[in-house]
């Protein structure tokens, strides 16, 4: 049983490493279309088969903001403070570059 749990944890860690870049790009994509918030993005990513916890989502959002790709504002929603994020001009530039790189890599991998 313990070996099975270790294998599951290893697989989850490996998957997280591989897909973290995709998740960041996906967040930037949605933030380029409208303001986003953490739970909304966790729900969106779940539709695509990603199981993202708050302990993963919020550090990603904070790092994207600290790196200058997103900016946020706070709003009181039903007595709780919600942070909304939108893409910055720096974020738009990296999103364009990421789309180009993803398209190039996808063409190569799929052939």
UniProtKB/TrEMBL annotation:
Q: InterPro entries, per this entry?
A: Metal_resp_DNA-bind_regulator, Tscrpt_reg_PadR_N, WH-like_DNA-bd_sf, WH_DNA-bd_sf
Task: Name all Transcription regulator PadR N-terminal domain ranges.
Answer: 27-95
What is the scientific name of the source organism? Methanobacterium formicicum (strain DSM 3637 / PP1)
Gene3D superfamilies xrefs = Winged helix-like DNA-binding domain superfamily/Winged helix DNA-binding domain (1.10.10.10)
**Which Pfam families does the annotation name?**
PadR
Report which residue ranges the record marks as coiled coil: none
The domain of life for this entry's organism is Archaea
The entry's protein name is: PadR family transcriptional regulator
Q: What is the lineage of its organism?
A: Archaea, Methanobacteriati, Methanobacteriota, Methanomada group, Methanobacteria
